Amino acid sequence: MKTSDFYYNLPEELIAQTPVEPRNSSRLLVLNKQSGETEHKIFKDLKDYLNPGDCLVLNNTRVLPARLYGTKKDTGAIVEFVLLKQKELLVWEVLAGPGKKAKVGTFFTFSDDLSCEVTEVLPDGNRIIKFSCKGEFFSVLDKVGQMPLPPYIKEKLQNKERYQTVYSKELGSAAAPTAGLHFTNEMLEELKNTGIDIAYVTLHVGLGTFRPVKVEEITEHHMHTEHYSISKETADKINNTKKNGGRVICVGTTSCRTVESAMQKFGEIKECSDDTSIFIYPGYEFKCMDGLVTNFHLPESTLIMLVSAFAGYDNTMNAYKIAVEEKYRFFSFGDAMMIL
What we know:
Layout: E1 27-31, E2 38-42, E3 55-59, E4 61-63, E5 67-72, E6 78-88, E7 91-97, E8 107-111, E9 114-121, E10 127-133, H1 137-144, E11 170-173, H2 185-193, E12 197-203, E13 226-230, H3 232-243, E14 248-251, H4 253-266, E15 272-276, E16 291-295, H5 302-311, H6 313-325, E17 336-339
Parallel strand pairs: 1-17, 3-12, 3-14, 4-11, 14-16
Antiparallel strand pairs: 1-2, 5-6, 5-8, 6-7, 7-10, 8-9, 9-10, 12-13, 13-15, 16-17
Helix pairs in contact: 5-6
């Protein structure tokens, strides 16, 4: 298949700039992947499509306030840094822009408590920086850093926690697992009380998730690598769900990539910690996931390809066409879709 096969026309005004309140008042498009039929609901109606014995798999990663603005010590120039990967406690791989101002040996100040030196320029243009920090690094980062919102969100985020899921726990993502942003704590408790199992995995979302597919033949695209982990408790819940005839429903493409990566590597869901660069596109045979809750994704992205692999290409593109016609809100702060 071609990358252009996954293009659809999206009016700019449908790109959500701010989250809705309360979280679970967003809209929900329900797609039957067998018939292709769609229904229009509200996210809090999700419970109507779940059965006792089903298992919701949620990604409990927490987003780093990874965007920092540094002042160059000798000239006062401002450079934006986005933290990508921690190498050591105070050593990070980062995106820097404008990069020409962040040469090896240059120093930047972020606050009275945080500064850095650029120590290396990598072949892809990313930088390695070493921080100097007064106090506990992540506490200082929380005060100084900003949420690394995707480039299509122009509005300033008023509350950092709205770009975190209510169950976020494991710090390490450069972007939120946005399908989970719709849940409230009360809704999760209600689901548990009706016999729905809740299982947590961790996959730290990298900025590669936003990188466009630049090749026309999708099989030539190289996926970015992300780290994931599955606890024994979660493995047991998923395996018991399967054994007892329940459905494993992943919340978000990151949860999907986690369980499918484990199945692909180990042939089972078990306690594990590993890196994955799994690329799921039409033709892929799902080994664990029975249902998917997800947001609406960018045209020609690996994420819409994953959705098409699960729901079917024609069903997916038709559902997106309907979502545009019905003026659903798209992308990170947008509405949701449930595929069963």
